[in-house]
Amino acid sequence: MNITLPILLIEDNPMDVDLTRRAFIRHNLANPLEVLRDGQEALDFIVGWRTGEPAPSVILLDLKLPKVSGLEVLRNIRAHPNLGTVPVVVLTSSAEDADIHEAYAMGANSYIVKPVDFEKFIDVARQIELYWTVLNMPCFSKHV
Q1: Percent composition of the chain: helix, strand, coil (DSSP 3-state, to 5)
Q2: CATH number (domain holding residue 90)
Q3: Rounded to the nearest 5 degrees, what angle is found at the Cα of 136, between the Cα atoms of 21 and 74?
Q4: Is residue 119 part of a domain?
Q5: For residue 22, with 0-12 CB atoms within 10 Å meaning exposed, 13-18 middle and 19 or more buried, which class applies?
Q6: Rounded to whole angstroms, how far apart are CA atoms 143 and 129?
Q7: Which member of 25, 61, 81, 109 has the greatest number of CB atoms within 10 A?
Q8: Residues near 89 by Cβ (< 8 Å), separated by ≥ 6?
């Protein structure tokens, strides 16, 4: 199956959204980037997602979101019958052990602390792109 699935970025910081876009553009990412800017918007997306719509290839999730926490968003993603298998990469500024442990306990596939330096951020974006959109084999359920 050769579908260019979207990447879903759940991030409230406009500068981090811009950095992510610029990093993906610099690497000619083919996947469209969809952005949700707070936890409530993410929950609305999850609830409103319809069978037959293309599921994201990967979800990049910040933990420190307004309205609803990233961990609550992760809990809802994992509970969704069709989105529950979508890889979730926590991409956050928190390096706290409790956040890392909780995210993995709730089903995060990866946990990355956001680099402050743009060039390092570019490298992280390239690695996310390479692994999650090129090398990783997504699970296509009969509902997708």
Answers
A1: 40, 15, 45
A2: 3.40.50.2300
A3: 65
A4: yes
A5: middle
A6: 25
A7: 61
A8: 58, 59, 60, 61, 108, 109, 110, 111, 112, 128, 132
Task: List the structure tokens of 139.
Answer: 């699970």
The count of domains in the chain is 1
**Is 61 inside a domain boundary?**
yes
Q: What is the pTM of this model?
A: 0.84
**For 73, phi and psi rounded to 5 degrees?**
-60, -45
- Number of other CB atoms surrounding residue 96 within 10 Å: 12
User: Residue with structure tokens 């918007």?
Assistant: 41
pLDDT by 10s per residue, the chain, length 144: 456 788 899 999 998 898 888 888 877 777 788 999 999 999 999 988 877 788 888 899 999 999 999 999 999 999 998 888 899 999 888 899 999 999 999 999 989 888 777 778 777 777 776 665 555 555 554 443
103 occurs within a structural domain: yes
Domain assignment of residue 23, given as a range = 7-134
